[in-house]
Amino acid sequence: MKFIKKLLFVIVALVALVLITALFVKKDYQVTRTVVIDAEVSEVYDYISYLENQQEYAIWQKKDPKTKNTSKGTDGTVGYIHGWNSSHEEVGVGEQEITKMKLDERIDFALRFKKPMEIESTAFMTTKKKVAGTEVTWAFEGGNPWPFNIFFLFMDMDEVLGPDLQQGLDNLKKIIETKE
Question: What pLDDT score was predicted for residue 143?
Fold first, then answer.
């Protein structure tokens, strides 16, 4: 009986330690990557404003070419929704909606992942004129409420998403710079 009491005390102490630690762990993340493309802002913005074009440069579609895609609305306009359904764990099931657009400057998206986990986050892409072309920034933002933010101690979202965003931007650069 003493052993069970000690074991129960240890379990309660560990749970309390995790909950207290979670109070001091960040709750939000932002992953950002940038590339400069040798093209005019309007050309780049026009291409990225269509979610269907992401299938050409974002890497997730390439992870499962059998992904079933759906769409609702008019692509390239606020309210357009691109959905996907894949059995591949890194692709999963979800949808992306254009929520805001500022011509030649910024596009905001709502991301609703349904499988393998239900998560909502946001993303945006910006375009900015540079001397040598157009700077494109792609960012994902999200978070976990307390106490689930404790997982950020073990998972660096920049390491998880950063390489995928960079590869997507590198693909975008290649596509736009080799267009005729």
Answer: 66
State the DSSP H helix or E strand holding residue 136, giving kind and residue range, or none if neither.
strand 133-143
Integer Cα distance of 83 and 72 in angstroms: 8
Among 114, 111, 109, 107, smallest CA distance to 86 is for: 114
Please list the residues that pair with 82 across neighbouring strands.
71, 96
Give the pLDDT of residue 133.
Answer: 93
Report helix angle 41-48 to 157-177, nearest 10: 120
* Digit-coded pLDDT (tens) for 2-19: 878 887 777 777 776 666
Q: How many CA atoms lie within 13 A of 130 on its CB side?
A: 16
**pLDDT number for residue 136:** 96
DSSP element (H, E) containing 19: helix 2-22
pTM of the model: 0.80
Could you please report the per-residue DSSP string of 40-107?
A: -HHHHHHHHT-GGGHHHHSSHHHH-TT-EEEEES-TTSTT-EEEEE-SSTTT-EEEEEEEEEETTTEE
Q: Check the CA dihedral 87-89-94-95 and report its sign.
A: negative
Token couple for 100: 């805001």
* H or E stretch at 36: strand 28-37
> In this predicted model, what pLDDT tens digit does every residue of 148-172 receive, in sequence order?
656 665 667 678 778 999 999 999 9
Tokens standing for 12?
Answer: 């309660």
